[in-house]
Structure prediction request, 380 residues.
Amino acid sequence: MAPTSTRTVIAVVGGGIAGASAAYALVRHPSGPEVLLLEAEGQLGHHTTGRSAAQYIENYGAAAIRPLTRASLDFFQHPPPDLCDGPLLSEQAILTIGGPGQGDAIERLLAAGRALNPDIAELSPADAGRLVPLLRVDRIARAVIEPGSSDIDVAGLLQCFVRGFRAAGGEIATMARVDAASRSGDEWSLDTTAGQRRADIVVNAAGAWGDVVAARAGVAPVGLTPMRRTAFMVASRWDDSCDWPMVANVNLDWYLKPDGPQFLCSPGDETPSEPMDARPEEVDVALAIDRINQATTLDIRSVRSSWAGLRTFVPDRAMVLGPDPDQPTFIWCVGQGGNGIQTAPAAGRLLAQLTLDGDPGPEWGGFDLDPAGLAPGRLR
Ligand SMILES: Cc1cc2nc3c(=O)[nH]c(=O)nc-3n(C[C@H](O)[C@H](O)[C@H](O)COP(=O)(O)OP(=O)(O)OC[C@H]3O[C@@H](n4cnc5c(N)ncnc54)[C@H](O)[C@@H]3O)c2cc1C
Prediction:
């Protein structure tokens, strides 16, 4: 009879950036677990991960997740060369502008930014207009520039995790939706559309479907709300716009990001949704066009392509990372909201430490990380 493996078997449910980064970190853990990545769709990254604005912004998101953004920077800047075909970050500052009546919001952004990065600074409206010549300078009251912000190669990042995961012996199953998970003794049994699998530990990285997967495993929800966000592309008529910063209104009710010869635009919408394959609504595209045309001379008349994705939050807008308080072999990795790409390298590492060591590793000392602010128990 073949000897039974004593390696811990971990099934990661969901092959977006959260599941891929967790799977990559888990399979490389010194304890040598067997890791299986289960994805419902035919390809990884099909849902929210493939639909983002792909920006790294240090001065963004709930306080509890900012250490994860900062701790991810080293991986973005120095990814394993054998796993990546090129750099994962390209410098692209973010310029945030506020109109009359938005001075307080700019002040708060500046205060939070200066505590993180001394290069985050106020600019005069005229200087903002010199940086991004399509802005209507007379509508700007105050402006802030964050030079450390960057564009992220999301496909390259996902590929990097997938290559590293496979190279370390990880197994990926696509078209493998988890429809039920039950425990018998110390083991999980997972019914998937690609057959039955067993695992000692289940990691729930199912994005908008996080609470659905928990319910299928008999685990109480953490209270996730998927929120639809719309994006679309318009042509640029400026030859050098690809060198301009991304621009956002301080209330985030519109933003535009130079992307080659185009601009990626968004109304910054947050419409609660069921977990689904999100589609853009014409009204949201129209709203963004109106707001951007008022603030700029872009004069958008047509849209090249549009899409929507679900940014999924719990009420405090921090992530949910770590073992379920009632079912410790069910590990949460959800609630990435609008930060899931920029935090992925560090979030995956932290998740592996919490799952297999029980504690964050010593590397977090310099990052002011508070794991309790991410723990699922805070939501029960
Ligand atoms: C317009 C927009 C702009 C954004 N901009 C940024 C940005 O600039 N920077 C940033 O960091 N983040 C940004 N985000 C957020 C970022 O995209 C998300 O935080 C991140 O992609 C979430 O990744 P995920 O893996 O949790 O979710 P997903 O990519 O949705 O992955 C979840 C996966 O789980 C799978 N799944 C679900 N149920 C099951 C099941 N039962 N069995 C198996 N698999 C299952 C799904 O098929 C899916 O592939 C943006 C998002 C949007 C929509």
